[in-house]
């Protein structure tokens, strides 16, 4: 349990919170970073460390984990203390004299607070399919790709039509043995450039688009997935 005093308390150590440490440091203000997750990086580190990101200025393409590593390097000179694995549960006081309390009983007294909580607590959007739990338990059904190599040589079905689905389809092209993208609409909601690349990969026969359909059933036994209907 820690009791810290600082100029600025930053709730959330995702990319926004990490860069807030830099901005505070440049203004000669001390800061403390607090995050409910055990590591910094927010969604980038927890959900998609190996996914390439293409919309960061001055980076034509950078993997999420590398982006976080670069942000870490950028804030190293400011040596902001971190309270990780701690969720901020209370905010009391007012401008000039805030007190934050975490679920572990830590307190941080701060003159100002930056809320960089992003999506807050994040969790998967589970499809209503029979027997889903057994496939989740074995990892046959996953909601995030943490390591692309874990899917090398596997037959992969991606369900979804947004940026994540399309980006993962492109990132796994050439790694998975086969790739099907199932989307309930004919048009993908992803960034137009990514959607265009997906169409090109489909035209080359590298990725099969299953549109407009949605997942109906999973077939297999004891959590071993054999087919997707
Ligand atoms: C699969 C996927 C792919 C993506 N791809 C891209 C992409 O290619 N390009 C792009 O620009 N964006 C992408 N995004 C979106 C991008 O990751 C987010 O916009 C970005 O992470 C937001 O950063 P943030 O720092 O604001 O918040 P987050 O990354 O959400 O971090 C917020 C942090 O706050 C912490 N927190 C929340 N509440 C509390 C609390 N009470 N106490 C302590 N800690 C708390 C959370 O634990 C979390 O670590 C993608 C998102 C996903 C899920």
Q: Superfamily at the CATH H level of the largest domain?
A: FAD/NAD(P)-binding domain
Work out the strand percent.
25-35%
Strand order of the largest sheet: 5-2-1-8-7-6
Highest-level CATH class of the largest domain: Alpha Beta
Count of beta strands: 13
Order of helices and strands: EHEHEEHEEEEHEHEHEEE
Uncertain runs with pLDDT below 50, 5 residues or more?
Answer: none
Q: Tell me about the biggest sheet?
A: 6 strands, mixed
Total individual domains: 2
The small-molecule ligands in this entry are: flavin-adenine dinucleotide
Rounded radius of gyration (Å): 21 Å
CATH architecture of the largest domain: 3-Layer(bba) Sandwich
Helix content: 25-40%
Helices, by number, come to: 6
CATH topology of the largest domain, what is it called? Answer: FAD/NAD(P)-binding domain
Shape: elongated
- Span of the ends, CA to CA: 51 Å
Give the helix/strand class. alpha/beta
Mean pLDDT: 95
């Amino acid at each position: 349990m820690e009791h810290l005093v600082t100029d600025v308390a930053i709730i959330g150590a995702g990319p926004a919170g990490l860069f807030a440490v830099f901005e505070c440091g440049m203004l000669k203000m001390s800061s403390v970073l607090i995050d409910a997750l055990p590591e910094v990086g927010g969604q980038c580190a927890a959900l998609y460390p190996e996914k390439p990101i293409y919309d960061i200025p001055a980076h034509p393409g950078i993997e999420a984990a590398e982006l976080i590593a670069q942000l870490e390097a950028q804030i190293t000179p400011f040596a902001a203390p971190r309270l990780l694995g701690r969720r901020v549960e209370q905010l009391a006081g007012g401008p000039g004299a805030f007190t934050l309390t975490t679920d572990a009983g830590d307190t941080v007294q701060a003159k100002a607070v930056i809320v960089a909580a992003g999506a807050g607590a994040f969790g998967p959007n589970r499809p209503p399919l029979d027997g889903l739990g057994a496939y989740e338990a074995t990892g046959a059904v996953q909601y995030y790709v943490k390591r692309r190599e874990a899917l090398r040589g596997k037959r992969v079905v991606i369900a979804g039509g947004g940026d994540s689905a399309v980006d993962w389809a492109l990132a796994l092209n050439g790694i998975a043995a086969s790739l099907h993208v199932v989307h309930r609409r004919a048009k993908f909601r992803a960034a137009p450039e990514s959607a265009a690349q997906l169409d090109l990969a489909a035209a080359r026969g590298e990725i099969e688009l299953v549109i407009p359909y949605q997942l109906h059933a999973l077939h297999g036994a004891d959590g071993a997935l054999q087919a997707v209907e």
